[in-house]
Write a structure and sequence with these properties.
The structure is a single chain. The strands form 3 sheets. This protein has a 5-stranded antiparallel sheet with strand order 3-2-8-7-6, with helices on both faces. It has a two-stranded antiparallel sheet with strand order 1-9. A two-stranded antiparallel sheet has the order 4-5. It folds into 2 domains: 161 residues, DD-peptidase/beta-lactamase superfamily (Beta-lactamase, 3-Layer(aba) Sandwich); 126 residues, DD-peptidase/beta-lactamase superfamily (Beta-lactamase), CATH 3.40.710. The protein is α+β, with helices and mostly antiparallel strands and 304 residues long. Helix content is 46%, strand content 11%. Helix 1 packs antiparallel against helix 13, helix 2 crosses helix 4 and helix 4 packs across helix 8. It is globular. Bound molecules: 6-diazenyl-5-OXO-L-norleucine. The site of 6-diazenyl-5-OXO-L-norleucine has 13 residues, from loops.
Length: 304
């Protein structure tokens, strides 16, 4: 077997000295306070073994990584009706762009850009009794960890500055693709994005996508077909206008967030999470992408 611990340490060490790694997200002011030099990696094999390096057990704001989890819950609840309200095509645009949404009559290109995730949030609001509580319980359940929580400060910081998401939600509403009111949908969306998890918890929660829909405790949450579809969406849309680059460099389905986290997985083999808050111009973690590129190159483990 490969010496995974040694591989993670080698990657961590070789990248830790890189200077020009980009900027921490500041459009959500609360995220601008996160120290730029944080860097952690956690790997979990499908067999249950875990390997960790650096700041992998410190909590980060999962931000857009939550879009995969909300999509999963909505897929469970409404099945293929999801695709009546959004598409599954890569957007080739930044995560918060609005122009395609107008051109395509209020149907978001995919569930992982902001407008798509806002429609998913609307679906959850319509189908859950206590949306925020039920969604948090769902995430805790997937990760088998009841300590996972919202960060109210981050949610409020985003609400006070979320003009772009208000624009997206209002545009969706004008096309009839938002059934609840804008304020309620965005309150839910900002809370889902504010969830705090560490790298290990992220690999726990994403285990289900590497394990044919069964979580760590072997409970079936998704059908094999649903897992196939969610992994395909992560591969083609998980990194916005850098999805091609991520497939090219790393070769795994995955998802990033502006908190600097990335989770990726190889079906039937492993889940891996990285955290490094400085972002490249596309809003993806600079060191996280590099670390994953090194990992799949060194181990020769990728879907290609
Ligand atoms: O809606 C937003 O802009 C943020 N809550 C999430 C964006 C995000 O994480 C983009 N990913 N890299």
């Amino acid at each position: 077997m490969l010496d995974y611990q040694a591989i993670l340490e080698e990657i961590h060490q070789s990248l830790n000295s890189v200077k020009d790694t980009g900027e921490v997200a500041s459009y959500i002011p609360e995220l601008a306070n996160v120290p730029k030099e944080k860097f952690g990696i956690h790997l979990q094999l499908i067999t249950g073994e875990n390997f960790s390096v650096g700041d992998a057990s410190e909590k980060l704001s999962i931000q857009s990584i939550s879009k995969v989890l909300s999509l999963t819950k909505a897929f469970q609840l409404v099945g293929n009706h999801l695709w009546e309200r959004m598409d599954v095509e890569p957007s080739g645009n930044p995560f918060n762009h609005l122009s395609l949404l107008e051109l395509e009559n209020g149907i978001p290109r995919n569930p992982l850009i902001n407008s798509g995730a806002i429609v998913v949030a609307d679906i959850l609001l319509s189908n859950l009794k206590n949306p925020k509580k039920d969604f948090l319980d769902f995430v805790r359940n997937l990760a088998h960890d009841n300590t996972i929580s919202f960060n109210e400060k981050v949610a409020e910081s985003e609400r006070l500055n979320g003009y772009n998401n208000y624009a997206a939600a209002n545009l969706l509403k004008s096309y009839g693709n938002l059934h609840n009111n804008v304020e309620d949908v965005l309150d839910f969306y900002f809370h889902q994005c504010s969830i705090m998890m560490d790298c290990r918890q992220l690999t726990n929660a994403f285990f289900v996508y590497a394990n044919k829909g069964k979580c760590l405790k072997n409970i079936q949450h998704l059908t094999a077909s649903q897992v196939k579809r969610i992994n395909a969406i992560m591969l083609t849309c998980g990194f916005y206008d850098e999805a091609g680059e991520f497939a090219f460099e790393v070769g795994l389905p995955g998802k990033s967030g502006v908190g600097g986290g990335i989770v990726a997985l190889l079906p039937h083999c492993f889940t891996i999470a990285t955290w490094a808050p400085a972002l490249n111009p596309q809003g993806n973690s600079y060191l996280g992408m590099k670390a994953l590129e090194h990992f799949t190159t060194k181990t020769k483990l990728s879907i290609f």
